[in-house]
Amino acid sequence: MKNYIRYALCTLFVWLLAQPFYAQTQDTETGYTSDESTQTTGAVWTELGATKVLPYNLSLGLDVGFRSNDWFNEASRWDIGLGLSWKPTKHWKFGVGYTLLFKHYPQEVGTKNETEISSYSYKNTSNGDEDSFKPTTFPGATYDDDEEEAFYTAADGTKYRYLGYKERYKDYTRTTHAYWRAKHRISFDAAYTYKFWKWLRVSLRERYQLTFVPSKTVNRTRTGTKTDTEYTSPEYEALTPSDLEALARGDMDAWSKITYEDSDSEAPKDAYEESVKEKSSKTLHTLRSRLTLEVDKKGWRWTPYLYVETFNDMDMSNNFHLDKLRLSAGVDYALSGSHKLSLGYVFNHENDDDGDMNIHAICVGYKFKF
């Protein structure tokens, strides 16, 4: 019976471990729509680890991991890490490690519908020329009421009469193409473990994690239309002097009171633009706190476990914001004294710079100690 269990676990492990290569071939440009709602996805997390026992209660470990989103359809992360741990007493353990990881960001699609004022037109009363000004505030202007028309006097004494404005309506779809981004991570651990009733092992681990994310240039595409409309010959009868003063300041409520005798609108123009955007580098400081319960009875090959872990942003300006909450339950199975398989379920809620997401993951791993 034990041989059948071992065979089934090994088969499941090999099948899940092969999924990274399948996910790589299925990696496409399809992704999540860029909005503020929480996304939900299924995932598979796999990990291979090897630990070398050293003198003086030291251990050197090497871990390689892969994660996918949308189950096996989209690769989301590769990582490789090296760590050194020290266990000076029965209960205490300390560690330091470095991890290089590559995270995949799927395609993002966002829409933009906006109206903007491209310019305001004024007539120079001294020479009859027309001038356009942008932004909306007329520079150095003072209001002057002359024959029921709006005049603004510049600092040099030149008078201008307001003629109208040009408006542009944009209807765009902007696509940020999928990309990979590297991260460098250093961590420092301190863990305390105590065993109750000779079978329940309880451990608390605190980890300070420093992550440096280098800058990254990403490709973007913008498609859609834009329409330009020119409004001219304003009528001022309905405007009060205070309205005209507000007009000079660019107050939009004042614009709404103006009526126009005519307008000239251009047909919508197609707009297509390819561009690049540089995502700035950043450094993240995170405190990870994990409480683990394990059933560890002498003679058992099975070790069921349950843990909860929080990820808090250590930037005080963010009020120690909870970036991630992770819950997991599973079981470790010792094939021998040196080989161990693990299988579990992970619920991961994250609300950080990478987005707002709920992940339901199957976690499978293999570790070898020598």
Descriptive account of the structure:
By secondary structure, the protein is mainly beta. The protein has helices at residues 2-17, 19-26, 241-249, 252-255; strands at residues 39-54, 58-69, 74-86, 92-105, 108-124, 130-133, 142-146, 149-153, 159-176, 179-196, 200-213, 216-235, 259-265, 269-279, 282-295, 302-313, 322-334, 339-352, 355-369. It has an eleven-stranded mixed β-barrel with strand order 1-2-3-4-10-11-15-16-17-18-19. Strands 5, 6, 7, 8, 9, 12, 13 and 14 form an eight-stranded antiparallel sheet that branches. A hairpin with a 3-residue loop joins strand 10 and strand 11. It is elongated.
Number of helices: 4
What is the CATH architecture term of the largest domain? Answer: Beta Barrel
So what's the oligomer here?
Answer: single chain
CATH topology name of the largest domain, in short, is Porin
Strand arrangement across the biggest beta sheet? 1-2-3-4-10-11-15-16-17-18-19
The overall strand count is 19
